[in-house]
Amino acid sequence: MGKRSRRSVSGRMVSASDLAQMGRCERLVVFEHLHGSRRTAGQQRARARGLVEHEQFYREGQAASTQVDRKGRCFIATCVFGEAWQTEVLRRFRDEALRPSVWGRRVIRLYYRGAPSICVVLRRWPQMQIPVRMVLGVIATGLRWWSGLPGGGKCRR
Amino acid sequence: MSALAWGVGCAVAVVGLGLVMARWRSVETDAARAERASRPAALRDAELVYMERLFRISTPVGLVAKLDRAYRMPSGLLVLVEFKTRWSNQPFLSDAIQLSAQRMAVMGQTGQSVASYGYVMVKAPTTRALPTAYRVELLSDDQVVALVRRREAILANRISARRAWSKKACRTCALRQQCDSLLQ
């Protein structure tokens, strides 16, 4: 819902929702291409209702995401670097190198168990963040150099 | 007297603010609970990683796709979810096509693995209705590319367009009367 307006980003770009129209009616695809979209009053009402429901669906997802963020903000890298490239590289290492393997997931689970208390300590005594920042910075630099990770914004937290 | 009035005023303001914040938190918690409840059972342990996020690729075909939601399974695999509001409580071929195009765009842009299935959450357009999640098998990349090429060929008038798959789609179409004459 609400995504069809994104079509024809460039001459040869097709949006997923425009392509999906091929599964409904190819004739309608041609007609809309030639004459623009035309909807009955019922379809317009349904579309408006759909947009409202979609907004609600998004809000629910966002609330769930915020709650996870609230719980997840204690991770050490976020604690010492904030939202920096080092944090992004370490997250990507977690998601792309550790998460696919059983052992990696065990390591992540162990880390999740211990990290909140470490973050409490780091927040209580900020001077302790300096050596942690140095160590994690070296690891992040090494990971970036080793795997060629650019530190782009792929992961959410 | 005036100090007492100030004190009472401040106390009322603090209590009011607390109540507003508690209410806000409760609304947020309800929404988060609704998100949890609406998830398909297979995604119970998954992490919600993308919402309303745009992905695009230019090869092998130009595609732009906006995800409703993507969850990351504990194995690292991404699973796509598409939300639909309609009276007909079932997934359609168009939903599978849309998810397949999204899958191709996500894999092409990020290089991450995306499941060969996805979920269509269908909700009736009433406030109290709960969405039903349907698992759908997605088209392969080759099939998506073939569909994009077919669309291009149809729009360039190289091949003729087929009619709607379902009779019901024709009945509710705004172009029902002109369908045959307009496209000749």
Key features of this structure:
heterodimer, A: 157 residues, mainly alpha, 7 helices, disordered C terminus, B: alpha+beta, Trna Endonuclease, Chain: A, domain 1, five-stranded mixed β-sheet, 5 strands, elongated
At a glance:
Chain A has 157 residues and is mainly α.
Describe this structure as you would to a colleague.
The complex is a heterodimer of chains A (157) and B (184). By secondary structure, chain A is mainly alpha-helical. Chain A has 2 domains: 6-68, no CATH class; 73-147, no CATH class. In chain A, 69% of the residues lie in helices and 2% in strands. Chain A is elongated, with a radius of gyration of 23 Å. The two termini of chain A are 27 Å apart. The model of chain A is unreliable at 1-10 and 150-157 (pLDDT under 50). Chain B has a domain at 37-158: Trna Endonuclease, Chain: A, domain 1 (3-Layer(aba) Sandwich), CATH 3.40.1350. Helices cover 43% and strands 25% of the residues of chain B. Chain B has helices at 2-38, 93-110, 141-155, 167-171, 179-182; strands at residues 47-57, 62-72, 78-85, 114-123, 132-137. In chain B, strands 1-2-3-4-5 form a 5-stranded mixed sheet, covered by helices on one side. The mean pLDDT of chain B is 83. Strand 1 of chain A pairs parallel with strand 2 of chain B, so a sheet runs across the interface.
Strand content of chain A: under 5%
Largest sheet of chain B: 5 strands, mixed
Query: Count of helical segments of chain B?
Result: 5
The quaternary state of the protein chains shown equals heterodimer
Shape of chain B: elongated
* Uncertain parts of chain A: 1-10, 150-157
**Main pleated sheet of chain A:** none
Taking all Cα atoms into account, the compactness measure Rg of chain B is: 24 Å
Derived from helix and strand composition plus strand pairing, the structural class of chain A reads mainly alpha
The mean pLDDT of chain A is 76
Distance between the termini of chain B: 87 Å
CATH secondary-structure class of the domain at 37-158 in chain B? Alpha Beta
| Total tally of structural domains of chain A | 2
Number of helices of chain A: 7
Distance between the termini of chain A: 27 Å
Question: Which structural category fits the helices and strands of chain B?
Answer: alpha+beta
The ordered H/E elements of chain A are EHHHHHHH
What's the overall average pLDDT of chain B, rounded? Answer: 83
Strand content of chain B: 25-35%
CATH architecture of the domain at 37-158 in chain B: 3-Layer(aba) Sandwich
